[in-house]
Amino acid sequence: MPQTDELMSLPKSNSLVRNTMLAITACHLRTVSPGVLQYRIAEHFQTSLALQDYQRALDVPQEKLGQAGADALLLSAVLLNILAFALPESETPARLNDDADPRTSWVFSTHKNRLGWLALQAGVRPLMRSMVPYFESALSFLGLIFFGTRGENWVLFQRNLDLGVPETWIKVFELESTDCDGECGTINSLKNGDASQDQPVVTSHPKPINVYHIPVIVLAQLRTLEFRHSYVFKNLFFLGKVQSEFRALLYHRDERALWLFGYWLGLMCRFEKTWWCDGRAKRDYQAIRMWLEQLHLAERPGVEGEMWRELMQDFRAAPVFNTL
């Protein structure tokens, strides 16, 4: 992240940004120096303060927030999601250079809150929609913070299939059968199974639902994105497109949702040694790969098996950057 004047000055005047950045700093120290109690305590303390400030900022009426307040709120939302993406202390290997065991991933967990780390991300989408009067300037500000220039931001994706989406992807995710843009759909609560009553599930809707549509298109463009270390933040754009219906499919281990999410994690694995994403990206990518392989999808009869063989080849290649 470029050390711009704006990034250095904002924490002096805004406690939300200050406490969020201190939480990120403590998390970094805890990650690179596992086992140091003081860093764990500092992380928990600063994260608690940051979340309290974040909630207070969310309660401020939009008209009173102002551009500076909107900039600070959106910046802190991105940073808090980076904080949530980093593996927690309880899931971090005791030795610095060890990889986390894939079987400790949420993919194999039976815990009802196994996707709780995505909870903060769930609120970013409505937050951004509520910031419409400030959004364009806020994106310019975030571009300066994360990429070092106001001329660059996350908004570079288009919603059509003529942008390099592989034919196999179009068929497997049934993108030809609906023109739904991925924005439609409703959710209810599951009343049985291993989910709690407040876990969302996909329900019927009068408009055709294809919750895979936008994630597929975003991934098709991310996979050929020029490699720069700062572009790890562009890859976070995918999480902004993960809606509640898609998270419900992940929760219930839908094979296509797992493939998409795992493919994205494979893309995140390209950014090796990025302290906050390396551990989770590697662990959960391997976990999803193990889960899908144990389903023997490629052994299904006929065309379905052939398409899954192609999908799994793409999946294994995701961590390796190439220009296609």
Which terms summarize this structure?
324 residues, 54% helix
What does this structure look like?
Helix 9 packs parallel to helix 13 (255-268). The two termini are 28 Å apart. It is built from 15 helices and two strands. Helix content is 54%, strand content 2%. The radius of gyration is 20 Å and the shape is globular. It has a two-stranded antiparallel sheet with strand order 1-2. It is mainly alpha-helical. The model is unreliable at 177-207 (pLDDT under 50). The protein has helices at residues 5-13, 15-32, 37-58, 62-85, 119-122, 124-130, 135-147, 167-172, 213-222, 232-235, 237-240, 244-251, 255-268, 278-294, 302-317; strands at 187-189, 200-202.
Tally of DSSP β-strands: 2
Number of helices: 15
Secondary structure: helix percent: 40-55%
Please report the distance between the alpha carbons of the first and last residues: 28 Å
**Arithmetic mean pLDDT:** 84
Overall body shape: globular
The percent range for strand residues is: under 5%
Low-confidence stretches: 177-207
